[in-house]
Amino acid sequence: MKGHESKMPRMEDILNLPVQDPPFADFSAAHIKWVKVEGGRQGGDDIALIPFARVDDFVKGESSHAECPASFRIESRRKRTEGSISKPRVDGFLEYRLYWCSYGPDDFRDSESNMGDDSNIKPTSGKGSRPGRRHMMRGCLCHFTVKRLYTRPLLALIIYNQRKHVDKTGAPCHGILDQAALGTRAMYAPRISEELRQKVMSMLYVGISLDDIIQHHAEVVQGHGGPHNRDDFLTRNDVRNMERVVRNSLHELHENDGSSVKMWVQRHPKHVFFFQEASGAEPFVLGIQTEWQLLQMVRLGNNGSLASHSTFGLKKLKYPLCTLLVFDSSRTAIPVAWVITSSFVGQDIHKWMDPLAERIRVKDPTWRLNAFLVDDPSFEISIVREIFQCRILLCTWHIRRAWTKSILKRSCNIDVQREIVKHLGLILYSTRSRPNTMDAVEDFMQVFVDQCSFMDHFKSQWLPVIEFWVNGIRSLPVASVEALAAIESYHLRLKSKLSDEKCTNFWQRTDWLIHALTTEFHSLYWLNQYIEDTGSFTSLRDESFSNNAWYQALHIPDIDVILDEHNLHLAKVISQTDRTAAYTIWNPGAEFSFCDCHWSMLGNLCKHAIKVAILCKSRQVARPLLAAQVYRQTLLSLLHNTPDDPLVLEHAILHATRLQQDIKGLEDLSNSGLLHPLSSEINYQTTDNLMIFPRSAD
């Protein structure tokens, strides 16, 4: 036996065993070094320690043996609460699960023909008749136990009681080693996989018919040369059963919303990475991530970026929604996690962000993030940086959109509108000319004192936080218009789904929000990715996924942009549908540019403003990004005031070197499209000036 030693360890020694974490997404018993334990209730059984977070990966790997595909169900389960035992045993558990192969333990291979002789025959396991499973029972004894250790809650003790898929005679009872199973479904796993089930459910949620699903599946099976596993035997009855589940699914599991949410969490433990009920001073927090979202976060977030879309539904929903987004190759923002919380999302984020990051790293230990984009400077930046070990960028899509919509709603003069937008941008992005933010705000309110409606709104909603935003922009690099467009596109799709007036009666129920996100809305993104990967169901493609403002801007020829590089007050873009018309963009290339097209006049970021921004970036005619200016000012201030103390000087050199590395990092992000290009003079001047520092004597 693998891992067998001359002297078997006793049960008291299990905590001295190594914790094994195979570097595979799914792993099986073959990837683990097992030891036999001496004495105790588990005497003679194989045991091993693995991270508790990877139990599902182990179960999935054990279900995928080529010789005997299986499906393990939880035959029994028990839980304890922390603190319930004063003197726990070394193998005492917080949670206990007994997994058994679905082809056992009962055996109905010989009794099927005799059912008419004795209709009172009952299975030996005490589980009743197991309706719908009798035809699958072949007496398989393969089973194992999982204990989440009481004294080490992050670890799971795996006790493999019977590793072979055999019956009580010791003979193979299913799979290709069982001669009686050849040519029958007993050669394969007893049920379709969870992946196929989620695939079919997603198709049903987006409205694909049963006939189309069956036809598509048959084409897929034929494409890889015929059936090879249980999934290839998908039947109309399988799909019909799932169709019934979709049709009968309801968000209201209980009259009380809190109880309903708790029931959903209990029914979908694999989709929940954090849950905290509201109690006393503790806020309600629910973190949701499906298996598909986890895979997208691993695939697209690795060496990429993660963005927060926070506080959606602050005025309408019972609790606001925060979404974490990744970006695919076409710069579409894909939701990879949802957090619903009764507290402000930027507070106490360590509670849910830690388990989310751990969930990702368990799936892929090499996973790393390049940048995290926050859309609110009140986010606990230090915690995000500590958890993900990456750069933090500030994304201004929310404040830009909110201000633009407020201006358009409360001012009717387009000349006044664009001037207000320009001045607000100057307040946010001005660092040297007006170091005192409130002085600039006072001047702004004096200039537009006659705009009473907008000023009342500005004073009540934004004046208390304006300095907070300015400080955030001064201290953090700012994301490019490319990221703004992707996040805004997601915001509009989410709004169209959740803010429908037909749903007004449900806005104050969190269970409705959960149901809407995890069913139809989730399936829209799944289908778009499936179409991209397979080329199937192209007629059902939602063009808004690949036709957002950024994508449209890329298809505007450079020749259709009229831009005077010596006068950057305005630019024009010729219409792509009416060649006799042109749209005017004021303050081109800046974060707060303003266009007179219909889409922009609704408060959205339009393709014309984006196209001009792209052109300014490629021609390097726009001003350097504010963050680069701040870095440059910090360096020059340091260089022009060289300290006399050798220790302080050495610290200054290290600080300047770190800033230089940060600027290099920002250049890398700029090349990936997350930032505007940094001015080349910044890096050159930094390198040159570092040379003038005199080195202290050794």
Automatic annotation (TrEMBL):
The keyword ATP-binding does not apply. Residues 113-127 have a biased composition (Polar residues). InterPro entries: Znf_SWIM. Pfam families: SWIM. Keywords: Metal-binding, Zinc, Zinc-finger. Residues 583-617 form the SWIM-type domain. One of its GO terms (molecular function) is zinc ion binding. Residues 112-132 are annotated as: Disordered. The keyword Aminoacyl-tRNA synthetase does not apply. This is SWIM-type domain-containing protein.
